[in-house]
Amino acid sequence: MKTRSVLFTTIATILFLSGCAPKPSFDLKMTIEPLSGIYTEKFFNFGETGNIIKKRLINIGIDSENIDLRTFTDGMVLTIARTDTSKTEIIEKLITVPGKIEFWETYENGEIIQSLTEANTRLREMNVNINDVIEEKVKETISTDSSLKENAGITDLINADTTGNASAREYKINNPLFAILYPRVDGNGQPLPSCMIGLVALKDTAKVNRYLGMKELFYIFPRDLRFYWSHSPYKYDDTQTFFELHAIKVTSILGDAPLNGNVIVSAKAIISKNRSDIRLNLSMNHEGTMMWARITRDNINRCIAVVIDGYVRSYPRVMNEIKGGNTEITGNFSLAEAQYLSAILSSGGNGLPLKLQVAEKLVTKSE
Predict the structure, then answer these.
(1) What class is the 252-345 domain?
(2) What pTM, to 2 d.p., does this model score?
(3) How large a percentage of the chain has pLDDT more than 90?
(4) What kind of fold does domain 23-97+353-365 have according to CATH?
(5) Where are the domains of the chain?
(6) Does the pLDDT at position 15 exceed 50?
(7) How far apart are the C-alpha atoms of 304 and 258, rounded to whole Å?
(8) Please, which pLDDT band fits residue 332 given cuts at 50, 70 and 90?
């Protein structure tokens, strides 16, 4: 019995000591430099940038005493002592994500649909995609009819209709824009209320940008209209390959957003009880409170687009004037994303004044 008692005591002691053993801590060291190709002495402002980075790190729970940020003429070296290595990815995001937030007034889909139709007609008159359609037909024909693979002239390939896609190709020729930008209309062809004017497959976004940026279409659209893409795929698209195109209205003389991150005092992630809905709650200063009340009052029954780093994250429809300077943003956020965005938006200013990248990263065990 005595031997068994000693054995149990020994095992218990081992388990106790192993359970109380401190977890190893690590030091994270990152060399940070300007994104390649944008460095100029005049533009560089490490002091302001460093202050924002420090605030962001503190906002995610890193002790200020563990942060050592040193600046040089061509970059910065950040060392975080005794850090949790699981935070390495979010730390890198906080350092490099600009975090620029803007609130824009918008056009309604119904106000833009006619311009899109005119643009589609003009592009058809220009035969902008005739070569693409021919190339597509040639590839389909060759892959389908092996007899045409050798010694076939281009005329033979074009005239061959072995794929059965003649009607689809004809539609693409007659509707260069609407063949790749699916307008937001109901079954009767009436525009749906929203600032979202269409859906585009990721592979076609560059082509849509090229079409809508053509000088031949400049006179068709309102002068104060800008097009912005959504940050994430359309949430009701099972394939998650289609992105939203939004119509933004520029209302200032300088072309800036009427409201930006400079007015945000604090931000925090809000999670619903069933954890199915994650939002960002923003509080604004006095200037932002007054401006937000004016914008919402002037845009009742219209959408306000919340743009973060150049992409639309949310576009709520205003139901009434919002007073008090508090507002919530929905945007299909994950919890981790909402937390790091709240850390960014609470750090003050309107994003990093410099575009940065992590050039080197080193993790070592703390002494």
Answers:
(1) alpha beta
(2) 0.79
(3) 48
(4) Alpha-Beta Plaits (3.30.70)
(5) 23-97+353-365, 130-175, 252-345
(6) no
(7) 11
(8) confident
